[in-house]
Amino acid sequence: MQVDALKLIYFSPTETSVKVAVAIAKGMGVPKVTHLNLTVPQARSRSFPPVTDHLAIIAMPVYGGRLPEEAVARLRRVQGNGTPAVVVVLYGNRAYEDALIELRDVASECGFVPVAAGAFIGEHSYANDQAQIALGRPDENDLAKAREFGGVIRTMMNGAATINQINALTVPGNVPYQDYRVPTNIAPVSDEARCTNCGVCMMVCPTGAIALRNNTMVTDASQCILCAACVKACVLSARFLNHERIVKVREMLVSKFTERREPETFMGQKNRS
After folding, report:
1. Strand pairing category for 239-240 and 189-190
2. What is the 3-state secondary structure (H, E, C) of 149-178?
3. Are residues 86 and 23 in the same domain?
4. Which of the listed residues 152, 157, 180, 185 has the most CB atoms within 10 Å of its CB?
């Protein structure tokens, strides 16, 4: 199966998932690569044409051992049309738990045929200079492994005449999935002394939860998914996630999950039929 057209599909508020997807694509050396960015607020209601590429890479972050509910809802608007897919999750150095099997299952329900999978590490949403939880990841070592993974995928695809020659993909995780445990009705706040109302936080928010009102950046906590895109995008360090529940989680992560973890990959090996 020659792969000459590749679709990158991703929900990536802090750009960790898209970085790995792009690296995998580079490793495959595919001449035509197009992007379907599910991160923007408009993806909530936008209609997408069916995917007709030779292969798709679907990449999403892990929140509390699951996929973000917002990301799943947006992916369900995409029709896979029988397209082979590589499913990839990015987790913050704690655990990906049921997120990878969930992405495999949701992709299948959307009409994709998962043939390979990866669990990579990305900077944790709650990380900062004082709580260095996978800070700066994916780093160059991670991206090199992603490119290598892309080469392995290309070899597998080239060696199969049809999708039926690739075995069903098996990945770690449990069904039924664990409960979705991300806190709700909590949001980052702005330091009004530092904030210049530049609007960057509004532009990067995937749910459109931030608005400028009375010369102040106001966040609708009911719409916030705690991705921390606004925090990481603010060059003035004027956005903070400092709710007491987040502080406790951050302290736990620093105490238990700062030892470096490495990416894992899984292949639906070619069968003998």
Report:
1. antiparallel
2. HHHHHHHHHHCCCCHHHECCCCCCCCCCCC
3. yes
4. 157
Length of the chain: 273
Element (H, E) at 233: helix 229-233
Pairing, β 55-61 against β 5-10: parallel
Structure tokens given for 8: 């990158």
Residue 73 and residue 217: Cα distance in Å, rounded?
Answer: 27
pLDDT tens-digit map of 193-216: 999 999 999 999 999 999 999 999
Whole-number pLDDT of residue 180: 85
Dihedral, CA of residue 132, residue 98, residue 19 and residue 16, to nearest 10: -30
For residues 130 and 102, is the Cβ–Cβ distance under 8 A?
no
Closest Cα partner for 118 from 99, 140, 94?
Answer: 99
Kindly state whether residues 35 and 137 are assigned to the same domain: yes
Q: What is the CATH number of the domain that holds 263?
A: 3.40.50.360
Cα within 13 Å of Cα(199), Cβ side: 3
Query: What residue type is assigned to position 76 of the chain?
Result: R
Task: State the pTM of this model.
Answer: 0.96
pLDDT (tens digit, 9 = 90+) per residue, 171-200? 999 999 999 888 899 999 999 999 999 999
Q: Quick one: which H or E segment has residue 203?
A: helix 200-204
**Per-residue pLDDT at 272 exceeds 60:** no
Residue-by-residue DSSP string for 72-129: HHHHTTS--TT-EEEEEEEE-SS--TTHHHHHHHHHHHTT-EEEEEEEEE---TT--S
